[in-house]
Design goal:
This protein has 17 helices and no strands. The chain has about 500 residues and is an all-alpha fold. It folds into two domains: about 250 residues, no CATH class; about 250 residues, no CATH class. The radius of gyration is 23 Å and the shape is globular.
Amino acid sequence: MGNTSSSNKKIASNAAFLYIRMIFIMGVSLYTSRIILNVLGVDDFGIYQVVGGLVALITALNGALSNGTSRFLTYEIGKGGSAMQRTFSTALSIHIGLAIIAIILSETIGLWFVYHKLQIAPERLSAAVWAYHFSILTVVISIIQVPYSAMVIAHEKMNAYAGIGIFEVVSKLAIVFLLKAFSCDYLILYAIFIAIVGLSCLGIYISYCSRKFQGTKYDFSIDRKIFRSIASFSSWNILSSFSIALNNQGTTIITNMFFGPAVVAARAISIQVNMAAMQFANNFRAAFHPQIVKRYAMDDYDSSQKLLLVSTKYSFYLMYIIGLPLIFLINPILKLWLGIVPEYTAVFVQLIIIQSLFSIFDISFYTALYAKGELKESVIISSVIGFIRFPVVYICFKHGASPLALSYAGIITEIILGVFVKPYLIHKNVNYPIKAIINVFTDCFKVCAISLPLPILFFYFSKNTLTDYFLVGAISIATVFLTIWFVGIDRSIRRQIIQFAITKIKHQ
């Protein structure tokens, strides 16, 4: 009982640090985007996104290894940490090897693609190539950083994780203002500064981990047994990582090929808005994630299961609270935020938010498979769907479809994975009761069905005035909050919240 109480307090503390990090980073990042879009211009902003996307596509393997590294470090702590030094050194050696491979591929195949396949104005090609070189450096740094950031998260030191994240985003804001102090090409200079920030964050992570944690001294060795375990675990993630990269960075590239940098910029902005909104759900889930894995490692399956289902439901609520007002008010928000609003941006944002609501289930349920190490079926199915999605989008573009085809394909994919595939797999492979899973969906969809009509009605009759925008936003938020409180939350939880509030008021 004492351990559970301690764990819950840890979750609450971690959640608090993550939300402080999120609010600060979200505010500064959104402001930074406005400034950088105005400094670089729509086309150069789009060019930077597409060359960065090309490097990320080449280094797709990093996603698989990152998951494996994080899982084994967290699992090792749950077991007592006797093999931490060997696990960390092996993981870091793997990532250094991947970084070397990334450099070779990016400077050969990737560079050829930049010169011959991307849609870039001839007068901006030289600047794009230089930005590409420094993007490679940035990605290589991020690859090497993975074991260190995974170590911080595995130890649940979310205060440090939050602090480094805040430093990174403040540094990127400072970059924007520094650009205007120089007279050289802004696109090249921006890429250089971003690489310097990445290098600084890596240095901070290395310094912090070496001072705070046992087992983070790199000894240039690879434990073959641990290597095989990480490789075996990650092998099933490799397909998934390539599939994800193909449908994120890959679609960015083909969007550039068919529609040019301006539409890429619109898509990039929509992704950034969505990521800001998703942070509310992601940080909430991140606070639970280590405990879900650790409790499973300690054979406390029932507690791990309950924790995951609860975190899934409330992650959805958090995303919905933010997402619904954004869908209704995205046009005035974009105009106020950016000034310059590339075509398709608003619709991209609305559709990607809908996609993200379904992805909550996909990502959350995956944690159960991740904790047990049962990834084979999930990865195969997800990858097959992803590999089908990419050529379908390409064919649609080839036959004259609008860029929005990309978003519709994303929504369909997440519905299939989040509502059908992952629930079936966690029931089959991790023994989650089907009734408990259905209850999560029922509560979430019930909240949506009850809360939607009133905001839609007010939005339909609004006249695009400031007062109407405020009214629609207020009604959306109020309706969702009230629906979640009376319909989406269990009666026992409501009583606990009320009792907690009463206790706090009495103490004051």
